[in-house]
Structure formats: structure tokens, C-alpha cells
């Protein structure tokens, strides 16, 4: 059953940010391991790197295992964090939009990489570098994991 009331804007923001950060951490570890293990890369993740110069819809070019893993995290993270269903749905939409934007090859004025200060968000430039040199930029959204791990 759905809650009787919608969350406040602040609660919605905090819950969505929590889901994005948790997903970013999970995917960073998963992505790093799949690039460092030759078997995992070839059998699971290589399909996503079919394009060295990605375009927007290549963001969803995934194998079955990768798609199920991402779907699992996207579905369970809001439950783990106790998020309102609206935050869960909004975060899924935001995650897809960010992934498509990251694979577009463009830094639009409305791209998060242009809005957030200090290079906190990698955007399409960082993701293009990852597709050209797959030994760097493993985080899907935020840059702090790559910076902290010096990768």
C-alpha cells in the first residue's frame, strides 16, 4: 500500500541523493572488478564497451547479468534506505536520464556536470574517457570514488 502523503521536497531530495550515492558506490565496486577481471569483463561487461565513442542510447546496451544487477540495486536500495515510493521512482528516472546524458558525448548547459561545482560529477567527458581508456573513471556518476582510490 502506498503512503497517504507525499514526502516533503527536502525528504525527496535527501532520499534520492542517498539512493544515487549508494548505487554509485555499488556500481563503482562492481564496475572496477569487471574491468580488472578478464573473465568477468569478457563474459559480462564487454558488450557495454562495444562502442568506444558512446552515444546516448548505448547507455542501455547491457548484457542480461549486468541489467539484472543494476535493476536489483535500483529496486532494493530504496527499500534498504526506507525511501518513499515517489523517491524510488524519481531516482530511477533520474538515474536513466543521467546515464543517457553521460553517454551522449555532449556537456549540455543543463547537464549535472555543468551544474555541480568542483568536478563532483563526471558527466559525458569522464565517461567518454572511460570508453576510450577503460582503466579509469569507473564510477557511473560522481567522481569521488575514482579520486579517493587514485584510479
From TrEMBL:
Biological process annotations from GO: lipid biosynthetic process
Signal peptide (UniProt feature, chain positions): none
CC terms in the record's Gene Ontology section: membrane
Highest taxon listed in the record's lineage: Eukaryota
Primary subcellular site in the record, as a coarse category: membrane
Residues covered by the Fatty acid hydroxylase domain: 17-147
Keywords associated with the record: Membrane, Transmembrane, Transmembrane helix
GO molecular function list: iron ion binding; oxidoreductase activity
Compartment(s) where it occurs, according to its Swiss-Prot or TrEMBL record: Membrane
PANTHER family per record: STEROL DESATURASE
Name this polypeptide is given: Fatty acid hydroxylase domain-containing protein
Species assigned in the record: Xenopus laevis
